[in-house]
Amino acid sequence: MDGEANGTLHPSCGASEPPYSEELLRSLDLPGRFLFATLTLMTLIAILVFIEEAVYIYRKIPSSKRSIIIWINAAAPVISTTSCIGMWIPRSTMFTDFTAGIFFAIVIHKFLMMMIKECGGQKLLLRRFEKSHFTISTGPCCCCCLCLPRVPITRQTLFWLKVGTFQFAVFRPVLVFLSIVLWSNGNYLLDNLSPKEPALWINIFMGVLTLTALWAVGIVFRKVRTLLTCKNIIPKFALYQFIVVLNQLQTVIIRMLATQRIIPCAPPLSSTARASYIAQQLLIMEMFLITVISRVIYRRKYHDLEPLECTAEEARDKKQTSKIIPNGAVVEDGLPKFCNKPSCSAVAGSSAQESVYSCTTNSHCPCQNNF
Q: What's the mean pLDDT in 295-300?
């Protein structure tokens, strides 16, 4: 940095490639080594916390929600791990960023599916909001377009919202693969955003896909947040938003500062490499905190909250003219339905968790409304 002030540049300041890990480690002083060790330890702790949480989820959560919640909880540890690898091996930064980006694209779709699952599934969600509408004038795309019409909540509308997040999970890996192919041919550089270069257009297209996916999640969250308040959906959404901002926006801002030379080079790191280095260190600390907070928010028993949904379904069933015949048939609106009592007794003899989940998925069975 002294060389820059005197008008002479260190050779590494004009280097197009980050240094090798051996060169970086040799340049570290004692505080730098202590920082490396501390951040690496934080990453290992985040991984252990996630593994412990995944075991808890696998044992305590119903199978229909298990994989989705594990995927969402894995977002922060995965980003922390890729950032730690990029910190130790600077030349792997592009690949670690791509890996974290692909994983988080899948997590965005999983978060939308989790909100639908928490409402009891697609069918129950459509029944709860059959006469309601989605407000599409929400962030991050249309928060200022208050004149947009409200869209009825139908099966087709819900399908297109799922497509909005699924397209990001599909096209993000495709664009990453294209970027790697162009990079291997020398046509793709992260810090070269000239209109004649493909990096600019790939990043713009990826930004549009990201905003579309976030918009779909925001539309659904705005509708179900009141219903799912008892399931801590607002803190969960806040953590999800923090990961979006920190992993996407924060990294972009830091790299823009490096492009404008606001972040100076520090041999053996060039300005761009140092920006990535700073972003990775910040992400490790931030994702560590989010991992710990996620463990507190997601570590709960689902069956403690499921009776609220069963009670709502029960109240709805009581408004209908239903008659129970001694042989186990239920007559609703003149149409007979049969309740298999042996299956109900089997459910009653199982764990409380499975009983509550069965009550939610098959709430029309009158003998299950007692659980």
A: 83
**Helix, coil or strand: residue 124:** helix
Range in 176-190, 222-236, 344-358 with the lowest mean pLDDT: 344-358
The token pair at 132 is: 């309601």
* H or E stretch at 331: strand 329-332
What pLDDT, on a 0 to 100 scale, did the predictor assign at position 163?
A: 92
- According to DSSP, residue 17 is labeled S
How many domains in the chain? 2
Cα–Cα dist 112/220, whole Å: 7
Alpha helices (runs of H) in the chain, residue ranges in sequence order:
2-5, 21-26, 30-60, 63-73, 75-88, 93-118, 122-128, 155-184, 198-224, 233-244, 251-259, 271-298, 306-319, 341-348, 352-361
Domain residues for the domain of 354 are: 307-368
Amino acid at 65: K
271 and 128 inside one domain: yes
Are 242 and 145 part of one and the same domain?
A: yes
Average pLDDT rounded to a whole number, residues 57-69 = 85
- pLDDT tier at 324, thresholds 50, 70, 90: very low
Task: Tell whether 313 and 350 lie within a shared domain.
Answer: yes
Which residue, chain included where needed, has tokens 């490790």? 284
Q: Are 359 and 310 in contact (CB under 8 A)?
A: yes
Distance CA 189, CA 54 (A): 37
- 20-30: per-residue pLDDT in tens? 888 888 888 89
Same domain, yes or no: 157 and 234? yes
Write down how long the chain is.
371
Instruction: Give the residue from 177, 181, 149, 166 showing the smallest Cα distance to 212.
Output: 166
Range of weakest confidence among 39-43, 101-105, 136-140, 180-184: 136-140
Tell whether 28 and 130 lie within a shared domain: yes
